[in-house]
Amino acid sequence: MDLSELDRDSTGRCRLNSPVPAVCRKEPCVLGVDEAGRGPVLGPMVYAICYCPLSRLADLEALKVADSKTLSESERDRLFVKIEEDGDFVGWALDVLSPNLISTSMLGRVKYNLNSLSHDTATGLVQYALDQGVKVAQVFVDTVGPPETYQERLQECFPGIEVTVKAKADALYPVVSAASICAKVARDQAVKNWHFVETLQDLDADYGSGYPNDPKTKAWLRKHVEPVFGFPQFVRFSWRTAQSILEKEAEGVLWEDSATGHQEGPGRIMSYFSKGPQTHPHLPHRYFQERGLESATTL
Question: pTM of the predicted model, to two decimals?
Fold first, then answer.
C-alpha cells in the first residue's frame, strides 16, 4: 500500500484506491464502510470502503475475512494481499485523516466534532465509488453514534441505495469486515512508517498502543512535548490526555491580541460608533495595527 502522499504532507488527508473492477461497473454491488484508529491519541484515523458484485459475495466470504480487531497484524496483512489478488471483482478505497486535520477540525472556531467528520468521510467515500462508476445497490456501515440517525442521514444522501447501519457491522457483514481490514492495514502502516517533520531528540518509536489510557503512550507524550511548540504532528492535540500534559509540561502563552488593561465590560454596541471619547478604550485588531490603519471619524 503506497502511503507516499501522506509522507509528503502529513497535515491533511490523502485518498488511496484500487482500480475499479470492470464487473463492478456492470453488475449491482454491495459496499461496506468501516474505520480504524478512531480512539487513539496518536496517528491518523483511516476510513475505508470495500465493494464487490452481489453475485460474487460468496467468493468474498470464502476469503474468510473477519473483524480486523479479532485478527493479528500478520493475518490482516495476509487477507489484504488476498483482497488485492482478487482485484478482478473486489475494489477498495480509503481516506487517511491526519492527526493535525482531526484536531484542527475539532478545535476550530466553528466546531467540527469527530462524529461529523466520520459521517462526512464515510459519505464522501460512498459518493467516490459512485463517481467512479461502481453500481452500488447496497451499503452496510459500522455505526458511529446512534445507528438510526446515521442510517437516516445516509439514506437521504443516497435515496436509490439500500442502506443498513448497525453496531458491530464489521463482525456481521463480510464486506464491512473487508473494509475494516483495509482500514487497519493502512493505519498500521502509516503509524509504523510515520515521517516526523520535526527534529526530535532521542525519538522513541515504542509508544505503546497509542490509546489515551496506555501508560506507555502517556510516557511517550510527556517525553516528546516541547515546552513552547507542543507536540509533533503525530499527536492529536485535541485529545484530553494531550491537553492535560500540555497544561502541566508546556509554557503558558499570552497572545498579542489578548485584552490588556482594566476593562469593566464591552459597553453598549452603539458606543463604538460614538463621536465622543470612548468610555471603554480598546486596542484595534492586529490586522489594522500591522497595516497602520486607523478609524476615520469624518468622511
Answer: 0.81
Q: How far apart are the C-alpha atoms of 139 and 134, rounded to whole Å?
A: 12
In a domain, 267, yes or no: no
- Tell whether residue 204 is among the known ligand binding residues: no
Ligand-binding site membership of 35 (annotated): yes
Q: What are phi and psi of 266, to 5 degrees?
A: -75, -15
- Any domain includes 140: yes
Q: In a 3-state reduction of DSSP, which class is residue 165?
A: strand
- The total number of structural domains that make up the chain: 2
Give the CA distances from residue 23 to residues 27, 52, 133, in Å, rounded to whole numbers and listed in that order.
6, 8, 11
Note the pLDDT tens digit of each residue in 67-84.
Answer: 788 889 999 999 999 999
Q: Is 9 annotated as a binding residue?
A: no
Q: How many residues does the chain have?
A: 299
Non-local (6+) Cβ contacts of 37 within 8 A are 43, 44, 45, 46, 183, 187, 191, 210
Indicate whether 67 and 171 sit together in one domain.
Answer: yes
